[in-house]
Amino acid sequence: MFQDIPKSKLLDMYKKMLLIRYHELTAKELFASGKIPGFVHLYVGEEAVAVGVMSTLRDDDYITSTHRGHGHCIAKGLDVKRMLAEIMGKKTGVCKGKGGSMHIFDYSKGMLGANGIVGGGAPHAVGAALAFKLKGLDRVAVAFIGDGAMNQGVVLESLNLSAIWKLPVIFVVEDNMYAMSTRSLVPGKLQPRHSAAKSYVERALGFGIPAVEVDGMDVLAVYEVAKEAVDRARRGGGPSLLHCKTYRFFGHFEGDPLVYRDKEEEEMWRKRDPITLFRDKLVSNNIINSEELDKIDREAKAEIEQALKFAEESPYPEVEEALTDVFTDNSY
């Protein structure tokens, strides 16, 4: 696997995972200090999914995201300075401080928006993929959705349409085991809580869509299956679904008391930290030594510290700006 990926890409993947981690830990501190309005849903623990998938995409490919979308944004190349500013509601933010944590959008990076509606991004990705096909472009769209979203009718409709029209779209299910606080399958119990399917691969196969389940804590495993799906889509092979088994290290949202998870389960998953796993693989396969990785770690941390300084020093929008950017100028 390592022979197929240039060292520069491997190191870029490692740094992006670190950027996501430090960005999210910073957002956690900002929220605790009352500097972030609204809710914050952290991506800590799931970094391997975003980076593994995004490392197979081009700049002109599109993605749609979820309420837990910061990691997708950073992996797609959005400016972390403007992201932190956006989350803090500042004028210099990606969306001028008007979108906030759950509605970050950057058309220039192919990021069609995070979405507070569960499953809401799936039909948008299908629409983008349809546009690519009608225009004869070899571009792909990726819809990131959670395990809870797989029970939404609009997601099943999106799967169905993409299969009928053989669209270049990949559905990435980030299964962190809990739809908010409801676990799909409870160990030791036969009765499912929110999904009768043992794997979302079954759902996709029901629509004739190729699907695979993958370890979402292993960035290289995610990269491998994502690359196959993306390459197939570019060749006109139609949609795919990736069921990524992962885990969020914190609550559904900041302030979540987490009474529905036990500590043993959390400790087990934290031992499989995706950044630590990737680091160990890079070192054990003689790709790079620990000292060089420590340097990348310091660079990522410094970049987030600079982003925080930029965000904190940025001004808030004027009250009058609330009425701007409401209507399009028909330039799209």
TrEMBL record:
Enzyme Commission (EC) number: 1.2.7.11
Gene Ontology molecular functions: 2-oxobutyrate synthase activity; 2-oxoglutarate synthase activity; pyruvate dehydrogenase (acetyl-transferring) activity; pyruvate synthase activity
InterPro entries given in the database record: DH_E1 (IPR001017), PDH_E1_Alpha_Subunit (IPR050642), THDP-binding (IPR029061)
Domain annotation Dehydrogenase E1 component: ranges: 16-319
Keyword annotations from UniProtKB, A to Z: Oxidoreductase, Pyruvate, Thiamine pyrophosphate
GO biological process: pyruvate decarboxylation to acetyl-CoA
Cofactor: thiamine diphosphate
Superkingdom, taxonomy of origin: Archaea
CDD domains: TPP_E1_PDC_ADC_BCADC
Catalytic activities: a 2-oxocarboxylate + 2 oxidized [2Fe-2S]-[ferredoxin] + CoA = an acyl-CoA + 2 reduced [2Fe-2S]-[ferredoxin] + CO2 + H(+)
Catalytic class of the enzyme: oxidoreductase
Presence of the UniProt keyword Glycosyltransferase in the record: no
Protein purpose: Catalyzes the coenzyme A-dependent oxidative decarboxylation of different 2-oxoacids such as 2-oxoglutarate, pyruvate and 2-oxobutyrate to form their CoA derivatives.
Binding partners and assembly: Heterodimer composed of an alpha and a beta subunit.
Protein name, as recorded: 2-oxoacid oxidoreductase (ferredoxin)
Organism listed in the record: Saccharolobus solfataricus (strain ATCC 35092 / DSM 1617 / JCM 11322 / P2)
Lineage of source species: Archaea, Thermoproteota, Thermoprotei, Sulfolobales, Sulfolobaceae
